[in-house]
Histone-lysine N-methyltransferase, H3 lysine-9 specific SUVH1
Amino acid sequence: MEYNLGQGNVTPPGSIDKSRVLNVKPLRTLVPVFPSPSNPSSSSNPQGGAPFVCVSPSGPFPSGVAPFYPFFISPESQRLSEQNAQTAQTPTPQRVGPISAAVPINSFRTPNGDVGSSRKNSRARGQLTDEDAYAEVQDVDAEDGTGEGRRSKQKKPRGRRPSGSSVVVDLDQAANDILSSINPVVFDVLKQPDGSRDAVTYTLMIYEIMRRKLGQVEEISRDIAGAKRPDLKAGNIMMTKGIRANSKKRIGVVPGVEIGDIFFFRFELCLVGLHSPSMAGIDYIGSKTSQEEETLAVSIVSSGGYEDNAEDGDVLIYSGQGGVNRDKGASDQKLERGNLALEKSLHKGNEVRVIKGLRDEAHPTGKVYVYDGLYKIQDSWVEKAKSGFNVFKYKLARVPGQPAAYMIWKSIQQWTDKTVTRTGVILPDLTSGAENLPVCLVNDVDNEKGPAYFTYSPCIKNLKPTAPLESSAGCSCTGGCQATNRNCPCIQKNGGYLPYSANGMLADLKSVIYECGPSCQCPPNCRNRISQAGLKFRLEVFKTKDKGWGLRSWDPIRAGTFICEYAGEVIDNARVDEFSGENDDDYIFDSTRIYPQLEVFPADTEAPKIPSPLYISAKNEGNVARFMNHSCSPNVLWRPVLRENKNESDLHIAFYSIRHIPPMMELTYDYGTVLPLKGGQKKKKCFCGSAKCRGYFC
């Protein structure tokens, strides 16, 4: 808004002098207005004032001028700038004429090399998630590319334009490095004509590691202005090289895929043979009969794009595909392709797999896909949609006798909304407020009132800390560590990468993770402090049927996500020997045990190498980690996390998910083995129930 700044206009108090408004323009078109030396009376400051001073965003700053967000700099740089400002003999700047065009604020560069942005972001400033750049197109809900109501608006991917020198990255080489590290036995399993649980597990693990690694490598190139889709890149590489399970399309059960399994990307459904199209909601197959070849539906994805009705857990009203054309607009749906296949399956009576897409509460722009089992089509009809055009409707009923899947999610939602009371609750919050989220204590198996008494503590306690092996002043990333800042010492210790994506997922399987710590200047929400933020999932300590107390989550957990750390009291080796042979050693974490490697990436999952042995007792004081049971096929692994601390060795044990974990599935990790067995130490019978159970642990 431009004003007449003459002195003759006097505006009565409480009123607006509209005559002073000469013109209204968008803010981006305005240019600064400077006092004229020849006519000081026209200035808003007729008595004269400080002349206009142009200062670089990173300094040096003259007296009375301070940096502003996002151009914060480190204290050392600020002190140097002030010294330079005091010694410099700078003449008073003079205005040389009007500025021709305003410069957008996001064209300046912050001291750590990143481009500033005036865009509001609920995450830590300057951070771009590995999925934010494609969140809006992650699931377009276009079941066949033309579905009515299913195509969501595809926004252009967000990202920073490359400026200055950028790191050249070779994504194909990064992918080949991952593939070359895979255990050769895995490929033998994947070559089997019929899939298996191992084949499905291996496929999904390879996809997740490759997707996260490609996102990590691509991020440091700074050139992320284009579509940043490591999920598609990883999926295409695996499809091209034949790294998948159940490549043959089939009707009914898919070997190795269990009811209740969850997926976070449509490509995962394709790679395991559950649902082939990456976008279409109806998958079908040609079936030869004695007379002709007909198409039959094999699977559908109901993700909320159409006017589907899935309130009843055992009945689904599914809308057909089609009815919208980009050029011609809305129209009646036609009995063709997927719609025809569903109609044929109605008369044939074959089973159809149903995958339900639910909102991912942790990442609102994405979805969680839940395999809900086999359904049969019972009826079909045509009705008017909200658009006024005819759509096909299909009624599907769930085949009886299958394990619960979608209904588990619905029950949790009812507990959350408090429309239904969770049965068997002993304590609503076992932590007594010590954690960010309550952890309920539940027993719906017997009459036991709870575990033995202990003091809940969310943190590790070391009464005899040791000096760090090497001194470190930490990082000076006052705005948070950035993936493109190659000078950050914390990034350098992690091999040149941030160990986490901005969504908090572990990027690869490094044996040791170096996090920022007390010696660092980065804020608490820094991307390299993931294990220090407390619980992020609604956990539940529950009574198992044959393993005592266990731990599970109400929320779905993505592969590579931090769950919790092992809290308790750090003890020495002498006290560990005191617990040998007793049940008390169930609450001892011993980093010197032999821990099995992951079968897929044996070279990348070697036993973690830590500076010194670490023993933690959670018998008298601990957190939820003390309730995690052993399994020979675990879904959780641990990693040592070393935090930057110049005063003492700041070592922690953090737990991360190995694969996607559905709600209400028990969280387990492998306790490892003590070799050689000490005198008097006995093997303990294992009750994990895994197909690969070793029968014991010790």
Remarks:
- The chain is about 15% helix and 20% strand.
- The first strand starts at residue 2 and ends at 3.
